[in-house]
Hints:
Elements: E1 4-8, H1 12-23, E2 27-32, H2 35-41, E3 47-50, H3 56-61, E4 69-72, H4 78-90, E5 96-99, H5 103-111, E6 116-118, H6 120-139
The structure holds adenosine-5'-triphosphate.
Amino acid sequence: MKREFAVIGLGRFGGSICEELSQQGMQVMAIDSDEERVNKFSSIASHAVVADATDELVLKSLGIRNFDHVIVAIGDDIQASILATLILKDLGVNKITAKAQNDYHEKVLRKIGADNVVHPERDMGRRIAHNIISKNVLDY
Ligand code: ATP
């Protein structure tokens, strides 16, 4: 059976997750409060909807609890990211990955039950540093 994903927030981060999952043949619902961003993804994702992820009734009506994995890719609006994650948790979503903007944000997201918290710039910086080191070792 195909796994179903929902991506909330279609900026560079959420947008690339949405694109890649779709390219890999997954069912993806793309959600953003910005209509223009949603329109961009209407031909990429299985479904694309304009919705405010801080509105519990809206998330309920989208049947969000039936998705296998929901990615909260809202960054700048930390309050919205926390509230959306909290609602998803309350609704019983199986797996939540959330993007953190800073260490405090990450701490709160973990505390309220996000299963996986990513901090793209920091994580990528670390990965590149490891890459550089292992490359230098190989160069010897
Ligand atoms: P990125 O760093 O990934 O490029 P960004 O800088 O474009 O992201 P962010 O503030 O991280 O912007 O927001 C990502 C997306 O989340 C935006 O497209 C924004 O419209 C959307 N978004 C913000 N708040 C909500 C909300 N309450 N419900 C749904 N989508 C939201």
